[in-house]
Amino acid sequence: MSHAVENLQDVKANIAAAEKAADRAPGAVTLVAVSKTFEADQVRPVIEAGQRVFGENRVQEAQGKWPALKEAFPDIELRLIGPLQSNKAADAVALFDVIESVDREKIARALAAEIKKQGKAPRLYVQVNTGLEEQKAGIDPRQTVTFVKHCREEYGLAIEGLMCIPPFDEHPGPHFALLRKLAAEAGVEKCSMGMSGDYEKAVAFGATSVRVGSAIFGAR
Fold first, then answer.
1. Contact 210, 195 (CB under 8 A)
2. C-alpha angle with apex 190: 143 to 16, nearest 5 degrees?
3. Which residues touch 127 (CB under 8 Å, ≥6 apart)?
4. Which residues of 167-199 are buried (b: 16+ CB within 10 A; e: fewer)?
5. What is the pLDDT of residues 69-84, one digit of tens each?
6. Are 55 and 32 in contact (CB under 8 A)?
7. Is 102 exposed, middle or buried (0-12, 13-18, 19+ CB in 10 A)?
8. How many C-beta atoms surround the C-beta of residue 7 within 10 A?
9. 77-80 and 190-192 beta bridge pairing
10. What is the CA radius of gyration of the chain?
11. CA distance 14 to 178
12. Cβ(194)–Cβ(176) under 8 Å?
């Protein structure tokens, strides 16, 4: 058994324990295995061990390894969790089942056009910059509810949830709590929050999916 498969089992067990501790239903939280920078042959054992939801940061990198893997394993769900440039919207809509990084008008407009053109509608999340960090993608928390409404009414986008990446040097709890509050106000059910260092805490705060990379695949 590969180290990644052993790690996968540990992470799944930790999520199950966190669900139980938070009095949440078993299986309430989806594990997104973040496979960015890892080659297809490193990812395949994790797929063969039963993991079906994966996250990638870059459209171009994902195009290099996932079409063949998705052909071999048709039930895989692939999520884009990194920033999306509008000139990559067509490729993103074609390849990904979920896009978690809708964060500005230009992206919403480009995705709406491609969804109409391709007849394929990936599920969408709005990324929120809960720490108001200048170097980080994501919409201002104060604009989130209005932006979700705008995406729905102006572009007909079915926004499923919100996503955030808290500042690495701050306690993540308040950021997770803020995202859950904004999700409720915006009328969306899903919250993608929590990574390798804090996914169990995110489960306690109501995450519906956690994005775990290095805790499964090892250091990049």
1. yes
2. 140
3. 100, 101, 102, 103, 137, 138, 139, 162, 163, 164, 165
4. eeeeebeebbebbbebbeebebebbbbbbbebb
5. 999 999 999 999 999 9
6. yes
7. buried
8. 19
9. unpaired
10. 17
11. 24
12. yes
Greatest pairwise CA separation for the chain in angstroms: 50
Give the tokens for residue 201: 């805490």
Q: What does the pLDDT look like over 78-131, one tens digit per residue?
A: 999 999 999 999 999 999 999 999 999 999 999 999 999 999 999 999 999 999
Q: What is the reported pLDDT for 158? A: 92
Q: How is 149-161 classified by DSSP, letter by letter?
A: HHHHHHH---EEE
Q: Which residue is associated with the tokens 């042959």?
A: 41
Strand partners, 55: 34, 79
Residues 6+ apart with CB under 8 A from 207: 29, 176, 191, 192, 193, 194, 199
Give the integer Cα–Cα distance in Å for 69 and 158.
Answer: 27
- The identity of residue 195, as a single letter, is M
Q: Can you tell me which residue has the tokens 């056009």? A: 113
CA atoms within 13 A on the CB side of 173: 3
Strands (E), 65-198: 77-80, 98-102, 123-128, 159-164, 190-192
24 backbone φψ class: left, alpha, beta (φ>0; ψ -120 to 50)? beta
